[in-house]
Amino acid sequence: MKHISQNSQNLQLVTKTFNDIPFTISTRYQGIKLLGAGSYGTVLLALDTQTNTKVAIKKLNPLEDIIDAKRMLREIRILRAMAHPNIVAIKAAIYDNVSQESDYFGTVYLVQEYFQADLHRVLKNPKDLSDDHVQFIMYQLTKAVAYLHSASIIHRDIKPSNILAKDDCSISLCDFGLSRQIEEYEEEDNKKAQNFTEYVVTRYYRAPEIMVSSQQYSFPIDIWSLGCTFAEMLNEGKVLFKGKTYVQMVKMIFEILGKPIQEDLDQFIKNKNAMEFVQSLPSVPPQSIKKLIDYSNPLAIDLLDKMLVINPHKRITAQEALNHPYFKEIREKTEEAPYKGHADFTFENDDTISFEQMRIMILEELNKLGEKIDIPGEIDRLRQLREKRRAQKLKK
Ligand SMILES: Nc1ncnc2c1ncn2[C@@H]1O[C@H](COP(=O)(O)OP(=O)(O)O)[C@@H](O)[C@H]1O
Ligand SMILES: [Mg+2]
User: Fold this and answer.
1) 303 or 342, greater pLDDT
2) Ligand 1 atom closest to the CA of 174, numbered from 1
3) Where are the domains of the chain?
4) pLDDT of 298-332, one tens digit each?
5) For the domain bounded by 117-335, which CATH number is listed?
6) What is the three-state SS of the chain?
7) Where is the signal peptide (predicted)?
8) In CATH, what is the architecture of 2-114+350-395?
């Protein structure tokens, strides 16, 4: 099935279906095949006929509620703001507003640089990774995380499938949609489980503080996830903590790494039930991951131990990790500069923003891509819709 429509940019959009998933994109791009599907988008490999290069086009799932809308706004805003060799760049966006119904929000597509694989796929053949590869990948990741953190952004979903890789071993972090508020972890999990009956929520990379105390988490959660990913690379692609539930995860973590002393626990477990549960776990003295992972480079193990410190206040930071001797020989200090701009995420905690308003903010955000997208008219239509909704609410 093919249909041709016109968007406001006077770009011709063509619909083509890949594995039953329609992509309505500019004729400039020729779809080749589906690359992957996460829980929030589907990614197509395409040829950009203008530059004759391969690109990846991520079709974002339709917005059903404010959580979806926040997620989309966050992803686009972060991608637009970040400029770093190890963070995936947004080349362009496509907005398909083909339906003219008044209560309609179009489909958003993000055009990104194409990567041959993600780390999850690479780790299926762990023998392909030499010590040098692991070191280089970890350096790039640590650099990307240090940059993100310098912009006060927490990724929150670092895991092998969100790390893109090229054949030359250069890598980029992707997938910036995950929520900031901890309650939303639960909501997100429930949503994923509802939408995808066979979808298993991956908790393997989730830091212990997320599981034992709801509000207390920050930048260190990314370091934990990075550590779990690192461990997988050092240990033949085996997932480090493969618990099925939060309880199982916490048990495994405390059994393998040992139980921190009470003073440490007090620093990050604020929930009484969680504290009682942790206290009931067997007292294993803190131990190095060396017991579990037999790896030849002691510097790698030393850095990993520092990333997997259970008390988030004592976990190594991304900036400190860059200074670790493991990276000494390969550092490119010019690429370690902090973020310079200002990215505004006040919408995250603003409960007064309506769903309609959030959709307008997404279009305004897309509009800021300048030449990379052009969507006049749409914003006005959505503004009118917002006013209509407001008036309806007032009447009630
Ligand atoms: N730029 C890209 N190049 C190649 N593959 C990609 C690219 N972006 C995403 N992918 C693939 O698609 C998958 C899903 O993309 P992701 O951005 O993580 O979306 P989701 O939010 O749905 O998880 C990734 O795990 C990866 O395998
Ligand atoms: Mg993903």
Assistant:
1) 303
2) 17
3) 2-114+350-395, 117-335
4) 999 999 999 999 999 999 999 999 999 999 999 99
5) 1.10.510.10
6) CCCEEECCCCCEEEEEEECCEEEEEECCEEEEEEEEECCCEEEEEEEECCCCEEEEEEEECCCCCHHHHHHHHHHHHHHHHCCCCCECCEEEEEEECCCCCCCCCCEEEEEEECCCEEHHHHCCCHHHCCHHHHHHHHHHHHHHHHHHHHCCCCCCCCCHHHEEECCCCCEEECCCCCCCCHHHHHHHHHHHHHHCCCCCCCCCCCCHHHHHCCCCCCCHHHHHHHHHHHHHHHCCCCCCCCCCCHHHHHHHHHHHHCCCCHHHHHHHCCCHHHHHHHHHCCCCCCCCHHHCCCCCCHHHHHHHHHHCCCCHHHCCCHHHHHCCHHHHHHCCHHHHCCCCCCCCCHHHHCCCCCHHHHHHHHHHHHHCCHHHCCCCCHHHHHHHHHHHHHHHHHHC
7) none
8) 2-Layer Sandwich (3.30)
